[in-house]
Amino acid sequence: MWLPQLHQQSETFHVNNLQTLDVKTQHRLKDLGLTRGKKVTIIRRYPLHGPVIISFDHQKIGLRWDLIQSLKREQVEQ
Question: pTM (2 decimals)?
Fold first, then answer.
């Protein structure tokens, strides 16, 4: 893998969905300030669906790749 491939542009999204996560994870994210509608910037992705470093409200945290995909997914109204 070439070094330029490791450097990816940042991506910004708004948290759309917390309802698909288990209750403990929802509480942990809410305690960190990550709520529905929050603007989040992905600043680093590790290869092979490794952790993703995100930034919001002047803090940086690492989350699992699949958790990030759940946060970006549109919420289905029931």
Answer: 0.77
Residue-level pLDDT, tens digit, the chain, 78 residues: 444 445 566 789 899 888 889 999 999 999 999 988 899 999 999 998 899 999 999 999 999 999 999 888 765 444
* Cβ count near 13 (within 10 Å): 14
What domain range includes position 49?
A: 2-72
78 domain residue, yes or no? no
- Residue 51 maps to which CATH number? 2.30.30.90
On whether residue 77 sits in a domain, the answer given is no
Residue 11: count other Cβ atoms within 10 Å of its Cβ: 14
Distance, CA of 58 to CA of 46 (rounded, Å): 21
